Amino acid sequence: MSTRKRSDIWMHFVGVNQAQARCQYCKNLISVHGGSTSNMRRHLKTKHPTALLADTQQTTTGTAATTSATASTSTDSGVASTSTQLATATTTAPQAARKRPKQTTMGGFINRPIQPLQQSKVDQALVKMIATDFQPFTIVEDRGFRAYTAALDPSYVLPSRGTISKRMLPNLFEKVRAELQEQIRTAPAVCLTTDCWTSNTTTSYMSVTCHYITDFKLRSNLLDCFVVAESHTSQNLAQELSRVAKEWGIQDKIAACVTDNASNIVKAVNDILKWNHVRCFAHLLNLTVRSSVHQTEIQALILKVKSIAEYVRRSTVASAKLREMQLQMGQVQLRMKQDVATRWNSTYFMMQRAIEIKEPLVSTMALLNPLLPALTPEEWDITKEVCDILKPFEEVTVEMSSERFVTGSKAILMARGLQRIVAHRQRNPSTHEPVKGMVNFLAADLEKRFGQIERVRVLAEATLLDPRFKKHAFVIERNAEETVSRVVGAATHAATPTLPSTEEEEEEEGGTTVNPPSEPVPQFWADFEERVTTLRPGVQNPSTGAMLEIKGFLAEPLIPRKADPLEWWRVRALVYQNICTVMKTRLCIVATSVPSERVFSKTGQIITDRRNRLSPSKVRELVFLNANL
């Protein structure tokens, strides 16, 4: 062929005539009519897929071989002949041909602007990062962040903090809120928790969280976190809770509301709103333990440990000496912990840490000889016993404060378990009188606060419907039987019997429905039909159906304690349809108001010295997105 062959595909073919070329691998003839190389390229891809790959891998090798052949030619004639043949073979072989380099276009030197869709996606990711990681809006003005963003994508244009605050954040807030409203609207029932908090700017906030079951999974979301400008009276708190419930369309779905023990919120939920009120389990435990450790002898011991902890944490010399002693004794370097007056578990952690590092701590205090009262051997023993007594209370608090797992059904079991532990210590009393007094106080206070917990209806029904516990969680049999009766009643109410359809409805033009008359029952069948009608599927008495379901449910074996009860119900939903409906209104109940308290822990990280001028509306949006993204 006389036409100049520019395409690199000709490295693998030899022209036969103007219309055909022969493949150098399989010797097949390929049509190249009109100079088109498409057929040849398609042939390579289907018949010899590794040929093009070999070109790329051997380009450098072919160049090197050509250079070597040229050098050999100038050495001697004998070798030159061989080298020339090698160079010729290299030039003609398809694997060693050199690909023509492409010229760089002008577009290669220009940064193309980011596409609007991609800009929007990155903007939204930026707003989510600010809300999730507690970043200030001014981060987009920080020199280091701008340099980092430019290094990632020079074409991306950072929005201003005003754009983020006034447009992008509200838009994302409304979008996420609308999605959650749609999701919660499908929930059969919800459990609310609420709490109040005052920020470092002396602004009072109230949070409301929602817990519900969808697709047999327990979900938790923050509904709102807003400023309460009025005084915290029962009427004002009830008004705010009612407003939130109406905004989210859940006023008729509230199975229970969990709060702390404050009289104003208890009255708002119980007396004004008429909702089922559940006292926070963790708050009740906090009151019980704090009261028990406030006895004179125990409190004096705690003050001694606290003074030592404050000294070691405040003094750099003492901290260094403590680390040195721990190294000498081959122990892990641990710091002293300090308690917080409003959290009893912080006192427990402080005393527990003192026990863990007792030997290096005693040695450090002896070497430094500060003007502090030292603990006697008897006081160290009392400290250890107090920690042993408080350990189960701490474990129960952690167990009951989870948001991801069902907790309301555990309340009765946890209360009874703590009562048994304290009763066991009463039967095996300590040799130290302060410890005896503490144990006796715990026993009395637990009975006062949790003695009637089996009578709390929503908790009792949640416990009964948990396939891990059922009636076995109840100490008093009568309470269990009353709970069964209530569940049967609720299941009966939830049942929707469907009568058998003996009439065929046909819709004709104009929307007229014609119901042909049913076939009359002969008189000799009438008595039988009356007696067996309620026994046929679909027309069973709702009460009878509910009783049969609860009987079958209670007869099933218990599942392991660590198993997921909602997964069990997912498998059995079709077997116990009416009981399952009641279950969704009970196992969504949480045992504590800790979810609302966690919201304020995050809010405290948002309202900082660097962000103390945030408006309440911006705090509301940031807290909401942080909790729900």
TrEMBL record:
<feature type="region of interest" description="Disordered">
    <location>
        <begin position="491"/>
        <end position="520"/>
    </location>
</feature>
<dbReference type="InterPro" id="IPR036236">
    <property type="entry name" value="Znf_C2H2_sf"/>
</dbReference>
<keyword id="KW-0863">Zinc-finger</keyword>
<dbReference type="InterPro" id="IPR008906">
    <property type="entry name" value="HATC_C_dom"/>
</dbReference>
<dbReference type="GO" id="GO:0005634">
    <property type="term" value="C:nucleus"/>
</dbReference>
<dbReference type="Pfam" id="PF02892">
    <property type="entry name" value="zf-BED"/>
</dbReference>
<keyword id="KW-0862">Zinc</keyword>
<dbReference type="InterPro" id="IPR012337">
    <property type="entry name" value="RNaseH-like_sf"/>
</dbReference>
<dbReference type="GO" id="GO:0008270">
    <property type="term" value="F:zinc ion binding"/>
</dbReference>
<dbReference type="InterPro" id="IPR052035">
    <property type="entry name" value="ZnF_BED_domain_contain"/>
</dbReference>
<feature type="domain" description="BED-type">
    <location>
        <begin position="4"/>
        <end position="55"/>
    </location>
</feature>
<keyword id="KW-0804">Transcription</keyword>
<dbReference type="GO" id="GO:0003677">
    <property type="term" value="F:DNA binding"/>
</dbReference>
<dbReference type="GO" id="GO:0009791">
    <property type="term" value="P:post-embryonic development"/>
</dbReference>
<keyword id="KW-0805">Transcription regulation</keyword>
<keyword id="KW-0539">Nucleus</keyword>
<dbReference type="InterPro" id="IPR003656">
    <property type="entry name" value="Znf_BED"/>
</dbReference>
<feature type="compositionally biased region" description="Low complexity">
    <location>
        <begin position="55"/>
        <end position="96"/>
    </location>
</feature>
<dbReference type="GO" id="GO:0046983">
    <property type="term" value="F:protein dimerization activity"/>
</dbReference>
<keyword id="KW-0238">DNA-binding</keyword>
<protein>
    <recommendedName>
        <fullName>BED-type domain-containing protein</fullName>
    </recommendedName>
</protein>
<keyword id="KW-0479">Metal-binding</keyword>
<feature type="region of interest" description="Disordered">
    <location>
        <begin position="55"/>
        <end position="103"/>
    </location>
</feature>
<dbReference type="Pfam" id="PF05699">
    <property type="entry name" value="Dimer_Tnp_hAT"/>
</dbReference>
